[in-house]
Design goal:
Strand order of the largest sheet: 1-2-3-4-5
Helix content: 25-40%
Strand content: 25-35%
Radius of gyration: 17 Å
CATH architecture: 2-Layer Sandwich
CATH topology: GMP Synthetase, Chain A, domain 3
Number of helices: 4
Oligomer: single chain
Structural class: alpha+beta
Length: 125
């Protein structure tokens, strides 16, 4: 029994489990539904402009209208923590199955700023 627990623990922590086909279909449906209403303004500065799914990762391209200001590390960390708070909560079935969520941030000119991601490890699962 102890050996089985160790083997299962290694399998789960190694990331060898992946989203099931039905989970991928459900996420793809969510992605398609979200895509239908894009671009979507989140707040006065933030707009989600695109979303797509590749393998086990759900991507969202987000534009932050910051004018000529810069995004410093403190602001990027704050946004990353916010994203973590939004996605690292029950139900855990998708995160536990290996879903990665990648929020890619760009300025209004299309310049890459940073990425805020969540996955099983970041969520402490």
């Amino acid at each position: 029994m102890f050996r089985l627990a160790i083997i299962l623990s290694l399998l789960f922590s190694s990331g060898s489990f992946a989203l099931s086909d039905s989970q991928k279909r459900e996420i793809k449906k969510s992605v398609d539904n979200m895509k239908a209403v894009l671009p979507r303004r989140v707040d006065q500065m933030t707009t989600v402009v695109d979303t797509w799914m590749r393998d086990n990762t759900w991507y969202m391209k987000t534009v932050i209208n910051i004018g000529d200001r810069k995004i410093n590390q403190k602001i990027a960390d704050f946004i990353s923590e916010y994203i973590k708070d939004q996605y690292c909560r029950p139900p855990w079935e998708y995160i536990d199955a290996g879903l990665n969520i990648s929020n890619q941030y760009y300025d209004q000119r299309g310049n890459y700023l940073f990425v805020a991601s969540v996955n099983k490890r970041i969520c402490g699962r």
